């Protein structure tokens, strides 16, 4: 929206000054905004990206947009010469995958073309979140992010965006993005903000001769969806020629001397440490889960190997962590486990519907799917079956 815009956070209102009486939503936002009645003079928006999830959206504070004459709107108290972006920091905030999928990547799509000259007006602002992801936010705006709920002043702008643009899971459709920004651009943006040195993964034909082996990062989990035979996986990978590290990427960064650093920065140092760690590797291996979000820090041409647990999770796994690597010029391998490789085989008898027909469980409720397939399941890989996957990952680095 462009023009004279006044925003009062304490009442969650955005006033758009209209040049004449009778102006409607169709005149302001265009005919393509089919979710608003064309003749409306006010409408509510929930500025969060998970529109299809009613349970989450019920917790998102709505913003009311009003078309008004100058004498109907509150007077300006603070003038700004940069555009505003109004959005919510609620919802799934705190889940690592959703922090990137619902907030960071949509923020990048919405604001990157503005070159830092934009102000974030945040509903349900989480101060710790802006601490943890300070490097990223600082690359998108040079201006203070306002806590819109706690600010009773009327802020005035000439241009404003209510809500963030979102295209698909953990990725960008450059055809729909301002300036056609892509996930490759996003990857380079992260490299800049975290000073990551490696833009491209090893090419084994060129570099093994120099003495460096390709590096494999196995992301471990503290609770469910763990690798139960991690030692076997490490041994097989090393035998093939990988230099292997297993890490949950959640441990605090280290001080000199190897002690864990006690840093009260909301997680900012941990993000810097995790991004640098991941960028040093050529292949990432993990069971489906939020730890795979760290693939955004891998160098281009790296390989992502996702192990998908039982439960008809293949499509979800592909959407969330299979498409994004390809959009970032990386390679992707998906390994779908068998019933024999799942610890669910220790909880349910052979032939149980949990193995044979997950469909009714999906139809019953997502919470039941999470409880059984994501909450009760670990994996024990069949190394005769999985070893060729490690070999393929190695071959893809050539």
TrEMBL record:
<dbReference type="InterPro" id="IPR007657">
    <property type="entry name" value="Glycosyltransferase_61"/>
</dbReference>
<dbReference type="GO" id="GO:0000139">
    <property type="term" value="C:Golgi membrane"/>
</dbReference>
<dbReference type="InterPro" id="IPR049625">
    <property type="entry name" value="Glyco_transf_61_cat"/>
</dbReference>
<dbReference type="GO" id="GO:0009664">
    <property type="term" value="P:plant-type cell wall organization"/>
</dbReference>
<keyword id="KW-0328">Glycosyltransferase</keyword>
<comment type="pathway">
    <text>Glycan metabolism.</text>
</comment>
<protein>
    <recommendedName>
        <fullName>Glycosyltransferase 61 catalytic domain-containing protein</fullName>
    </recommendedName>
</protein>
<feature type="domain" description="Glycosyltransferase 61 catalytic">
    <location>
        <begin position="188"/>
        <end position="305"/>
    </location>
</feature>
<dbReference type="Pfam" id="PF04577">
    <property type="entry name" value="Glyco_transf_61"/>
</dbReference>
<keyword id="KW-0325">Glycoprotein</keyword>
<keyword id="KW-0808">Transferase</keyword>
<dbReference type="GO" id="GO:0035252">
    <property type="term" value="F:UDP-xylosyltransferase activity"/>
</dbReference>
<keyword id="KW-0333">Golgi apparatus</keyword>
């Amino acid at each position: 929206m462009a023009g004279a815009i006044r925003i009062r956070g304490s009442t969650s209102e955005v006033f758009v000054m209209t040049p004449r009486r009778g102006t409607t939503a169709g005149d302001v936002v265009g005919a393509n905004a089919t979710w608003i009645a064309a003749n409306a003079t006010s409408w509510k928006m929930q500025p969060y990206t998970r529109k299809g999830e009613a349970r989450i959206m019920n917790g998102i504070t709505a913003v009311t947009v009003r078309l008004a004459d100058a004498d109907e709107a509150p007077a300006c108290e603070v003038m700004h010469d940069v555009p505003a972006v109004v959005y919510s920091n609620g919802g799934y905030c705190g889940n690592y995958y959703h922090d990137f999928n619902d907030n960071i990547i949509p923020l990048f799509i919405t604001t990157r073309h503005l070159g830092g000259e934009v102000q974030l007006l945040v509903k349900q602002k989480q101060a710790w979140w802006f601490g943890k992801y300070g490097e990223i936010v600082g690359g998108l705006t040079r201006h203070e992010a306002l806590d819109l709920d706690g600010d009773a002043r009327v802020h005035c702008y000439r241009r404003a965006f209510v809500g963030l643009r979102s295209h698909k899971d953990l990725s960008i459709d450059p055809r729909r993005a301002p300036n056609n920004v892509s996930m490759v651009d996003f990857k380079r943006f992260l490299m800049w903000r975290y000073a990551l040195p490696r833009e491209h993964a090893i090419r084994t034909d060129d570099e093994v001769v120099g003495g460096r082996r390709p590096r494999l990062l196995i992301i471990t989990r503290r609770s469910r969806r763990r690798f139960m035979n991690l030692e076997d996986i490490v041994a097989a990978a090393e035998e093939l020629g990988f230099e292997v590290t297993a890490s949950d990427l959640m441990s605090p960064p280290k001080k000199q001397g190897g002690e864990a650093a006690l840093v009260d920065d909301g997680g900012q140092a941990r993000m810097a440490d995790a991004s640098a760690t991941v960028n040093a590797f050529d292949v990432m291996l993990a069971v489906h889960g939020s730890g795979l979000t760290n693939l955004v820090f891998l160098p281009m041409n790296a390989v992502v190997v996702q192990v998908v647990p039982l439960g008809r999770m293949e499509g979800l796994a592909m959407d969330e962590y299979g498409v994004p690597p390809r959009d970032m010029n990386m390679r992707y391998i998906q390994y779908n486990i068998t019933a024999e490789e799942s610890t669910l085989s220790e909880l349910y008898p052979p032939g149980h519907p949990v193995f044979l027909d997950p469909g009714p469980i999906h139809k019953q409720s997502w919470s039941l799917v999470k409880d059984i397939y994501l909450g009760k399941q670990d994996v024990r890989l069949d190394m005769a079956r999985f070893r060729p996957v490690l070999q393929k990952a190695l071959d893809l680095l050539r």
